[in-house]
Amino acid sequence: MIADQVIVSKSKARFLEHNLQDLVGGSYFWMDVLCIDQTKEEERIKVTSIIPQIFERAQKTIVIRDGSGYISCCARAFGSLSTWDDYNAGVRRWCKHWTDEHNYDLLKEGILERLWPLQESILSNHIQFVTCEERHITSNDMDWGRILSGQSDIIANVDRLWTFSRAWASHGKDKQASSADEQLSFISAFLNNEEVSRDFPEGPSLSGAIEDGFFIQSNSTRRTTKARDLILSTMSQYGWYSAPSPQVVRGMGFGRLFQDCFSQARHADRATLPKISAGMVGEQGTSLETSNVPEPELLGDLVKLFGLATEGALQHDKDCALGVELGSVVVRSVESCDMSTILRTLEGSLEFSKYAWGLARRGELSLHGAWPDIKAIFAAEHEKKDDEATLSKNENLRHMNAIQFLNLMVLGFFDGGGTKMDADSFKRDLISSNPSKFSKTLVRLGALISCGIGVSAYLWSKTVWTPVLVTVGKTDLLGMISSRELANNSLRDEHHFRLAHPISSNMTITYKHAVITRPGEGVKARHRCIGLLPAFTDMNMDREGWSRRYEDLGFPEVPTFNVVDLI
C-alpha cells in the first residue's frame, strides 16, 4: 500500500493494482510516478540528468500502453512482420481494417504522443510491452473536415510507429549498421504486447554526435507539459551536454535553455549553425546563438531548431561558422500580393519542397481538420469592431482556418482525386473574394513550413520575420527574412542580399541549410545570416532530379564558391 498521492490515469492505476506484482515479482523496480514527487518541480527537473543511466542499465523496461490505440484486432490485421514486404502489406491491410471497422474511432496511442516514453524506450535494450484494458474512443466531432483528413490520420499514425521503431533500432549505432530486423521486431512486439531486445555495447551510448535518431523526429507530434523538458529529456543522453542545476533551469525559460544547449553543442564540435541565428531576429551582436527562438509545442518543433548538426563540426572560430557564398539573390515582398498570387506561391512551394510539406502532412497538420469555414473567414475579414477582444478572436479564427486550408491543400496535392477538387473549389472562392488579412496569415504559415519551422512559431514569427519571395537563378522560393533588416534596407538593391550555406564536418555542402545573408565590409568581412530558405534537396531526390534543380538554381557546372565567415 502506498500512502502518498500517486498522479496517474485511472486505467493505469487499475492496471498497476492488478498486474504490477505479476510483472515485477520480487525484483527491484523503478517507476517515475512512484519514485519522483510529481508535486515538486525541482524533483522532476533533477531526475532528467539520471534518466539515461536508469534506462540504459535496466534489465528490462516495461512499457504500459493505454489500450485506446492499436488494439488486438489491429495486430491481427498487420499479421506476421518478418520482412519489409510483410510490413508494407500489413500496413495496407491495417489501413483498410481501420477504415472499415473503426471509422468513427480515434486512435489515441499515448505512447506515441508523449515525449518521455520515447526517450525512456530508446535508451532501453530490452523492452516488454503490456497494455491496459482495450477500449475505443469515439469522436464526437466528425465534421466533414475530420472525415476528409481521416486517411491522413491513419498515415500519420503509421509514420509515428515507424519512427518510434527506427529511433529505438538505430540508437547509438553507426549510420551504416543494419537494424532492419530489430526495427521489425520492435513494431511486432509493440502491436502484440510482447518483448523485444537489441544488441548494444555496454557503457554510455551517445557521447558524440547528434544522431539520425534525433533528426527523424522532425515531424514528431509528441508533447510534454513543459517546453524545457523537450531539451532536458533529449539532450541529457549526450555526453557533451551538461544541464544547468534545477534551480537555474526554473529561472531560465526555454529560449535561454536552448541557447545554452546549442552553444554547448557547437563548442563540443557537434553543431555548426542554428536554424535561427541571432541576425535572423534582428540582433547585431557577435553571437551565433540567440535566446529569441519560438517556444516549441511539439518535439518536432524542437528538432527543427537545431539546423546543421554534424559528427565533428568545424569549430573555425568561437563566434562564427564556416560557410560558402553561393551568389546574390533578389528578395521581394509577398504579403501585399493578391490571393491569386499567394496561392500560386504556395503551389510552387509545395512542388519545390515536397519533402517538407510531406513531413507536415504526417506531422503537425495531421492534428487538425481539413475543412475551413469560408463564411467565418469572410466575416472576420469585414468585421467593423476593432476592440482588442474582437481583433484577437478574428486573428485566432484566421489562424485556425488557414491551417485547415493548408491541410486540405496538402491532402489534395498528395492524394489527388476528390480531395484535390475540394481544395480547388476553396481556392476559387478565396480568389473571388480576395480576403487580404487571411492571405497574410496563409502565406506566413506556408513560409514557416517551407523553411522547416513548426507552425506553432506563427505568433512568434510575426514579431521578427517577414515572408518574402527569393529568386535564386530561375526559381522563386518562399522564405523568411528579418523584419528589422527590411526596415533598414531597400529591397530594390539586387546586390544587397546573398545566398550562403554552412560547411559540414566533411567539407561538403548539403544544400539543405541555405540562408540569406548580408555581407559586411572590409577584407575579412563576415556575412550576417538574416533569413531562411527552404532546403534545396532531400533524401528522396534522385541524381537526375537534383541535376535539373541545380541548373534551375543557377549554380555553376563547376562550383567556384567563396568561403566566408557566417555570424
UniProtKB/TrEMBL annotation:
Occurrences of domain Heterokaryon incompatibility (ranges): 24-120
Source superkingdom: Eukaryota
A Pfam entry, by short name: HET
Stored InterPro entries: HET
Protein name, per record: Heterokaryon incompatibility domain-containing protein
Upper classification of the organism: Eukaryota, Fungi, Dikarya, Ascomycota, Pezizomycotina
